């Protein structure tokens, strides 16, 4: 007797010891996996299986890792997950993981048994049942699909979606009685919701049972003559039965009914537009309807936007579309699409006052959109409202968000720098230019203006030369940038190289008449050429250029130019 007890004790001790060893190595494997040490994790999971080959958790995790690391073929990993499901057939995690892998691999039929088991253990998982219904439907197992949909209905209750799915499945089996009984059951479940009866009538209409459909429509109309779904269904009925007169009458009654929503009117007019695309003879009537509807005060801009979209599609004039967009802004001053459209409309016309008005609306309603502040500043600048322009740029920069485009921020700082310099605030100007280059270090126009103003002040000429050189590398034929670079070399007393670059601005081989005809060649550029030639010792050419500069009469020459001609020498500005 004692010997038997000893054997039992030793066996129990051995089992307990083995389980302790398994638990230790399993925990170590989990720690390695979570730490990203996958090599160690694989080795430790395998060691766990050496201790206990029937341990479902070790089989599952090892199989999952092999799939994740693609260490073996797909079938090896799937085989281990199947083994884990057999060892622990009630574990929902194992079942769902294996089913998901099969679904992702488009092996849907192999996923079905595991989804069925999962649905059995977790009866409230209607998402699993929905997946099963979809698989059965796609595989042509209609009866099974209907049975699963019934199981979902038991959990969630009747719904249009479920009833329509079952209706479609019954119809595919040519079991019309069962199909319409399903819809009748939905109507009986919710007797006070007439929209379900309209749905059933629509299905009768589509199936060719117009009389049954009309009986239901009439029933609903007696209960609720203004039911929107009914009215839309009736319109479709009249269209299908080619009763065009009744169709048009019903559409007009809905369009002009004061109780109709903007959304409904837009939907009806969109349908009307589609008709005109098929039959152009209806176009004038459609546009007349638009005008009649829009002659009344609008609660919102939806209908106006639809007509604008149609006119754009029909390639109507920009002015006609703009007229509508102005009305949109009267109803909705912050309408983004209308603001953007009008900004693009006024920009090529250089209508800066109108651009200012549009941008002020944009800044007020959409302060996060930096473009409105930018174009507001530019429009004020062009109207010589420089202080207001600077404030517009500053306000925009104060409220800019992280989403603001760096190039746009850079341009705003650059123009702000120009404004500061014109107000004789060089320190503020140069600080603004530095900020502009932080946001976009290759802002060419900023580099040019920064370099030029430094040269005018005879400050940091090496820095100015480096910045200016970058501009002519970027745009080697830009005479403004070439002039800046030549002038910087002039200020550094490198007269020979200054003349070489200035000759690319004012071509010495051109006649006076030809030079005067170059539109971009301003008087100050020609004056610079004269200054450079004077310092190079070519006084005749210098006098020629100074006189030509005066003939430009564009107001860009320095006040000293006449004195230079009179004294016949270069005179440095104070």
What does this structure look like?
This protein is mainly alpha-helical. Helices cover 76% and strands 0% of the residues. The protein contains 32 helices and no strands. It has helices spanning 2-34, 38-51, 56-69, 74-87, 92-104, 108-121, 126-138, 142-156, 160-172, 176-189, 194-206, 210-223, 228-240, 244-256, 262-278, 283-294, 302-313, 318-331, 336-346, 352-365, 370-382, 386-398, 406-422, 426-439, 444-456, 461-474, 479-491, 495-502, 512-517, 523-535, 539-552, 561-567. Helix 13 (228-240) runs antiparallel to helix 14 (244-256). The N and C termini lie far apart (123 Å).
Describe, in short, the structure shown:
With 574 residues, this protein is an all-alpha fold. Helices cover 76% and strands 0% of the residues. The chain has helices at residues 2-34, 38-51, 56-69, 74-87, 92-104, 108-121, 126-138, 142-156, 160-172, 176-189, 194-206, 210-223, 228-240, 244-256, 262-278, 283-294, 302-313, 318-331, 336-346, 352-365, 370-382, 386-398, 406-422, 426-439, 444-456, 461-474, 479-491, 495-502, 512-517, 523-535, 539-552, 561-567.
């Amino acid at each position: 007797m004692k010997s038997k007890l000893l054997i039992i004790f030793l066996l129990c001790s051995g089992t307990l010891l083995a389980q302790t060893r398994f638990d230790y190595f399993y925990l170590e494997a989990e720690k390695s996996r979570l730490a990203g040490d996958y090599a160690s994790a694989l080795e430790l999971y395998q060691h766990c299986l050496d201790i206990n080959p029937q341990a479902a958790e070790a089989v599952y995790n090892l199989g999952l890792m092999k799939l994740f690391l693609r260490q073996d073929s797909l079938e090896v990993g799937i085989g281990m997950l199947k083994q884990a499901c057999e060892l622990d057939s009630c574990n929902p995690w194992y079942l769902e993981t294996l089913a998901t892998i099969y679904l992702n691999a488009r092996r849907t039929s192999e996923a079905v048994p595991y989804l069925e088991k999962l649905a059995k253990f977790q009866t409230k998982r209607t998402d699993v049942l929905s997946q099963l219904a979809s698989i059965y439907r796609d595989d042509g197992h209609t009866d099974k699909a209907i049975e699963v949909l019934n199981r979902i209905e038991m959990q969630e209750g009747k719904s249009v979606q479920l009833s329509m799915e079952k209706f479609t499945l019954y119809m595919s089996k040519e079991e019309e009685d069962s199909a319409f009984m399903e819809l009748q059951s939905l109507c009986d479940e919710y007797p006070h919701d007439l929209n379900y009866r309209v749905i059933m009538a629509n299905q009768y209409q589509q199936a060719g049972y117009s009389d049954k459909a009309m009986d239901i429509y009439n029933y609903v109309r007696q209960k609720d003559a203004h039911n929107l779904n009914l009215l839309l269904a009736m319109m479709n009925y009249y269209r299908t039965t080619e009763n065009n007169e009744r169709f048009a009458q019903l559409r007009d009654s809905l369009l002009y009914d004061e109780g109709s929503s903007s959304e409904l009117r837009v939907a009806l007019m969109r349908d009307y537009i589609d008709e005109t695309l098929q039959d152009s003879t209806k176009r004038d009537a459609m546009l007349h309807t638009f005008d009649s509807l829009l002659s009344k005060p609008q609660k919102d801009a939806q209908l106006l936007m639809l007509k604008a979209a149609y006119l754009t599609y029909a390639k109507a004039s920009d002015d006609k579309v703009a007229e509508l967009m102005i009305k949109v802004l009267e109803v909705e001053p912050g309408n983004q699409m209308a603001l953007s459209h009008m900004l693009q409309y006024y920009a090529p016309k250089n209508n800066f006052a109108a651009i200012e008005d549009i941008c002020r609306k944009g800044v007020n309603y959409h302060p996060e959109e930096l473009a409105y502040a930018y174009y507001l500043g530019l429009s004020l600048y062009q109207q010589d409202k420089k202080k207001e322009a600077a404030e517009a740029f500053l306000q925009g920069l104060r409220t800019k968000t992280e989403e603001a485009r760096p190039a746009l921020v850079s341009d705003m700082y650059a123009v702000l720098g120009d404004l500061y310099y014109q107000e004789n605030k060089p320190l503020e100007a140069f600080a603004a230019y530095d900020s502009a280059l932080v946001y976009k270090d290759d802002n060419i126009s900023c580099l040019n203006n920064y370099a030029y103003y430094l040269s005018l002040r005879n400050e940091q000429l090496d820095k100015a030369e480096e910045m200016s050189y970058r501009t002519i590398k970027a745009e080697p034929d830009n005479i403004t940038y070439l002039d800046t670079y030549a002038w910087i070399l002039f200020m550094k007393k490198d007269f020979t190289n200054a003349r070489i670059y200035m000759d690319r601005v004012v071509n010495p081989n051109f006649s006076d008449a030809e030079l005067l005809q170059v539109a971009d060649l301003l008087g100050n550029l020609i004056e610079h050429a004269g200054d450079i030639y004077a310092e190079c010792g070519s006084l005749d050419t210098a006098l020629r250029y100074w006189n030509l500069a005066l003939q430009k009469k564009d107001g860009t020459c320095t006040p000293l130019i006449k004195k230079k001609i009179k004294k016949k020498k270069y005179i440095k500005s104070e």
